[in-house]
């Protein structure tokens, strides 16, 4: 039995967009970046039970009990009022789940999925839980054939990766900007550790996918294309996914940013191809 717990914002039993094949996707609450373009901004913080959302809920799906905000799922209409007004960029709908509780959900879906992806927020901010969960999956005769992937921002230290990689089959990771100054402007943190993580994971054969997000007028990939392409080239045979920004679901100033067009993505792709980066994956759709 494993009772180690995590704060979970959502469980999707069958996802086709969180890694290869059909996967159970577990979204953990809390992140150590503050990306302006985040499409799940309510997963950044942790609810501090301030109660500001309770009187604002139009469906009386929230109450205050013994100093805690309580979510009543049966009354919730998923209108997102609480998410949009939360000063913590959190959600009162997050639930505490143990490893054993998550394993039960995985077992229910196991015949129909190829693996498990832990995402966020940032999955590695709750590293002991992820390590215990993956260890349990690998030890379970019914589940051990499932692949265990992490969707990460790469801020985890080398010591942290050493704990996770023995039970993790791969990591999908974003490089949100090349230059640290641009990265700080977009996310609030520099990207030195992220680049170290990308290199380490590639050396260990655990970098399942590197991703670049094309945000017109905001990212600096083309300004540093020679350095970027050289960095990607030394990683080896790693799939590079080009994603196109759209403003759906984002908060704040990024709501006014224009969506990336197919031509803007192709411009970056062509610049990378000219420098020897050819294993590219393109967006499935543009908004």
TrEMBL record:
<dbReference type="InterPro" id="IPR001989">
    <property type="entry name" value="Radical_activat_CS"/>
</dbReference>
<dbReference type="InterPro" id="IPR040074">
    <property type="entry name" value="BssD/PflA/YjjW"/>
</dbReference>
<dbReference type="Pfam" id="PF04055">
    <property type="entry name" value="Radical_SAM"/>
</dbReference>
<protein>
    <submittedName>
        <fullName>YjjW family glycine radical enzyme activase</fullName>
    </submittedName>
</protein>
<dbReference type="InterPro" id="IPR023912">
    <property type="entry name" value="YjjW_bact"/>
</dbReference>
<dbReference type="InterPro" id="IPR034457">
    <property type="entry name" value="Organic_radical-activating"/>
</dbReference>
<dbReference type="InterPro" id="IPR007197">
    <property type="entry name" value="rSAM"/>
</dbReference>
<keyword id="KW-0479">Metal-binding</keyword>
<dbReference type="InterPro" id="IPR013785">
    <property type="entry name" value="Aldolase_TIM"/>
</dbReference>
<dbReference type="InterPro" id="IPR017896">
    <property type="entry name" value="4Fe4S_Fe-S-bd"/>
</dbReference>
<keyword id="KW-0560">Oxidoreductase</keyword>
<feature type="domain" description="4Fe-4S ferredoxin-type">
    <location>
        <begin position="69"/>
        <end position="96"/>
    </location>
</feature>
<keyword id="KW-0004">4Fe-4S</keyword>
<keyword id="KW-0411">Iron-sulfur</keyword>
<feature type="domain" description="Radical SAM core">
    <location>
        <begin position="17"/>
        <end position="284"/>
    </location>
</feature>
<keyword id="KW-0949">S-adenosyl-L-methionine</keyword>
<dbReference type="InterPro" id="IPR012839">
    <property type="entry name" value="Organic_radical_activase"/>
</dbReference>
<comment type="similarity">
    <text>Belongs to the organic radical-activating enzymes family.</text>
</comment>
<dbReference type="InterPro" id="IPR017900">
    <property type="entry name" value="4Fe4S_Fe_S_CS"/>
</dbReference>
<dbReference type="Pfam" id="PF00037">
    <property type="entry name" value="Fer4"/>
</dbReference>
<dbReference type="InterPro" id="IPR058240">
    <property type="entry name" value="rSAM_sf"/>
</dbReference>
<keyword id="KW-0408">Iron</keyword>
<feature type="domain" description="4Fe-4S ferredoxin-type">
    <location>
        <begin position="38"/>
        <end position="67"/>
    </location>
</feature>
